[in-house]
Amino acid sequence: MLIKTKAIVLSKVKYRDNDLIVRCFTVHRGVVSYLLRGVMTSKKGNSKVAYFQLLSQLQIEENYRENQSLQSIKNVRLDYNYTSLHTNVFKSSIVMFLAEVLASVLREEEKNLQLYNYIETTFRWLDVKEEFSNFHLLFLLNLTKHLGFYPDTSEINQMYFNLNNGLFEPKKENVYSVSGNNLTVLKQLLGINFDELDNIKLNSNQRQSFLTMLLLYFELHLGSFKKPKSLQIFNQVFK
Question: CB–CB of 72/34 below 8 Å?
């Protein structure tokens, strides 16, 4: 059965000599894995390797077969042509890092149009912006809305944020109670949109500290989540 859908590339691995296995987040049924036969040697047509860069936004036509773990793609074209996301070294580092996070947290084979639209829209925003040093922080924080553990802001004026239960609290309850600069940054980021990010001024140490806290937040609420392997490289690029 032929199905047309939009898809965002989450990961790709070489398979045998000339094939790729690509995992995509699709509009029609969530995460789907595709086997692309001979794509490494294809010089023309609709199966160019360049289409399958991390977080590329595609329009695909798949040959869907029920109960098959690896689907196949008949036709593919770009849904959005990035102008800088894969050529700017800083943006490509963000792409590598966040694609690894998304590949880790998105596992469900079910439709989630709100989440798809969020990923699609935010990376198009990043593609055209010149100031984006805090992008990954707000992206990850807002991603928790779609994953079910966005911070409860009803008591946002309290002096601590408890990573373990996602609540603002008046006193330190355990080792996961956050205060100080990370608490300040969290309160600044909650509820803002991406166009307001320029108003938040952070140095590299503050940015890395807050990112470390966010990743711990993910680990506490997603049992299978592990710190991305690309984190060290990412932090070096953004020193």
Answer: yes
